[in-house]
Amino acid sequence: MALIAMMALVVLFEGFDISVTSIVLPYVSGEFHVGPQAIGQAVAAVGMGAIAAALLLRLADRFGRRPLLLIATGGFATGSLATMLATDLWHYAAFQFFTRMLAVTQVSVAYLIVTETLPPQWRGRINGLLGALGSLGAALPFMLLEKMLATSLGWRGLFLIGGAPLLILPLLFFLLPETPAFVASRQRGMAGLSLITQVRQLWSLDLRRQFLLVSLLWVLINFASVSTSVFFTTYAVKERGWNAGDLALLGPAILAAAALGNLLSGYMVDRVGRRFTIGLFLVVLGLAAQLGYASHDKWLIGACWIVIQSTYGIWAASFTLTSELFPPHLRGAANGACNNLIGRWGMVIAPAVVGEMGARLGGVGAAAFWCSLAAYAALPILWLLPETRGETRKFPAA
Fold first, then answer.
1. What angle do CA 269, 270, 273 make, to 5 degrees?
2. Buried b (16+ CB within 10 A) or exposed e, 300-312
3. Contact of 372 with 228, CB cutoff 8 Å
4. pLDDT, tens digit, for every residue of 351-369?
5. What class, spelled out in words, does domain 2-382 have in CATH?
6. Among the listed residues 219, 247, 321, the one whose alpha carbon sits nearest the alpha carbon of residue 277
7. In the chain, what are the domain boundaries?
8. Half-sphere exposure in the Cβ direction for 240 (13 Å, CA)
9. CA of 394: how far to CAs of 263, 272, 391, 397, in Å?
């Protein structure tokens, strides 16, 4: 239980960072006097931090899960605090690049620790529980924005909250153990493989097909998720006339929906399978985004946004599937390569595409509507992958 509680805190603040980066966009653009194209480019640059995280994640297979999580957590909190000092859009993007890189590293390692510590029949539900706690972090900026805007700190005050993980760092240092799977890999001499060796093994005939499929799946999941979420605040405020109070009203409902969505995802992952769960959540994401971004009714838009938040349980399910498809001594490298080095290009491209399309179509809402089709494109990729529910997979010797 102590392990789950510690990982929950880590995931909570990663959810906070992803959400706060989006919710402050209309206020950042107003202060720095920039339009949607520049904002889209800046957010794309921030997303590059998730790709850079691949270089850090492979170190989890070399030095261990525990030390990398400690470094990432401390660095993430420091980067969030530094964001308060931004004096223009590109300073903001630079600080958030660093923060995003470490936020993605810490949450990936947290899910990896859970996968390697718990038995297969519990992994989905616990990862879903962690996702539910991450949804709490994602809802906090919505609930706190109006109050922060009323202070002298303004939108920057939200990044002060992002520095809170520094307070839990001592707890992680003294109580977090290394995972049994990594200890066993180190004892067998499998830890500390070079980058070239890791790439060669991931590209072996035994793993190549699933490496390519998982990478493409992550590209589409990231693109669909980000393109339907990153500009929602801008869409609501600038295209539908919402204010900070309207956004604050969504906070509790977002929290409840996202928590329930993650818990449902975890339950379904263990009961009906990883692939079916991911596929169902992708379909719901696409339908809710298309309805919400085409509507002018405030209540319908809000309801669709709440449903979109509930689909983010797809992340916990996808982390679980990705980790289970690769042997323990390559899981850090596989997560780093599939989800970050390759898959996160979907996250990088999405805001730039929405910003550019928004300028051409007359609004980011129309752009998000069309980009949501990527959710359906992921379905055939998903069903080409093997199901891992309830399995303790056997891998060939390296």
1. 50
2. ebbbbbbbbbbbb
3. yes
4. 889 988 988 898 899 999 9
5. mainly alpha
6. 321
7. 2-382
8. 24
9. 28, 21, 9, 9
Of residues 307, 302, 304, 319, the one with CA closest to residue 222: 319
CA dist 222 and 156 (Å) reads 26
pTM metric for this prediction: 0.71
The C-alpha atoms of residue 275 and residue 380 are separated, in whole angstroms, by 11
Of residues 228, 371, 379, 243, the one with CA closest to residue 307: 228
Tell me which long-range contacts 247-250 makes (C-beta under 8 A, separation of at least 24): 247/23, 247/142, 247/145, 247/146, 248/142, 248/143, 248/145, 248/146, 249/302, 250/142, 250/302, 250/305, 250/306
257-311 pLDDT per residue, tens: 877 888 888 889 888 889 999 999 999 999 999 999 999 999 999 999 999 988 9
Contacts with 373 (C-beta within 8 Å, 6 or more apart), sequence order? 286
Token pair, residue 19, equals 């959400």
DSSP string, 308-358: HHHGGGHHHHHHHHHHHTS-GGGHHHHIIIIIIIITTHHHHHHHHHHHHHH
Q: What are phi and psi of 106, to 5 degrees?
A: -65, -40
